[in-house]
Amino acid sequence: MDINTVNALPYDDFVNIFGNVVEKCPIILAAVWSRRPFVSLPALEAAITEFIDGLPESGKEGILRCHPDLAGRDLHRGTLTRESREEQARAGLDALESAEASRMARLNEEYKERFGFPFVICARMNDKESILRQLSERCQNERVVERARGIEEVKKICRLRLQSLVLPDAPKKVMTH
Fold first, then answer.
1. Where in the chain are the domains?
2. Model's pTM, two decimal places?
């Protein structure tokens, strides 16, 4: 769909279609709907980003807590959102060897214990090796650094999910005489 179609969507349709561009946070899209019309896909993305940036730190942590563990219980139970399932599979997280799966589970737990929210990374922009490496490295960060890093990853995920739903803006035709 193009941006004009997006702008014409009734509230319920907008939230149903875009409600998971920020994992399990349809409330964000519900709030952003009132900012229509969006002049472009980047304008829609900017409205979501501005909303997230305007949240208190506890709200940002809430967004992070909505994310599943990578290669975790939800993946194995089949209870991931469609988007997360596809993203994790694309990064190879659904086909970890036993040692990799054990390491991922241990690091996920260590990370959650340290920070109080799950490790978030844009799986579509990484493979299992880089995800494991970054998970290990990021466990050493300070909480404030890691919360900000997690939110930046949420924004990358959001951008890619939006791009899969909305056509890029058509180039403007230049009138010639």
1. 3-62, 68-155
2. 0.94
End-to-end Cα distance, the chain: 31
- Residue 154 · residue 63 · CB < 8 Å: yes
Class of domain 68-155: mainly alpha
Q: How far apart are CA 132 and CA 93, in angstroms?
A: 10
Which residues does 125 contact at the CB level (< 8 Å), separation at least 6?
A: 156, 160
Question: Residue 64, Cβ neighbours under 10 Å: how many?
Answer: 21
Backbone angles phi, psi at 65, to 5 degrees: -70, -20
Active site residues: 67
Sequential pLDDT tens for the chain (177 residues) = 999 999 999 999 999 999 999 999 999 999 999 999 999 999 999 999 999 999 999 999 999 999 999 999 999 899 999 999 999 999 999 999 999 999 999 999 999 999 999 999 999 999 999 999 999 999 999 999 999 999 999 999 999 999 999 998 765 554 555
Which structure tokens are listed for 31? Answer: 């709030």
| Pair 37, 14: CB distance under 8 Å | no
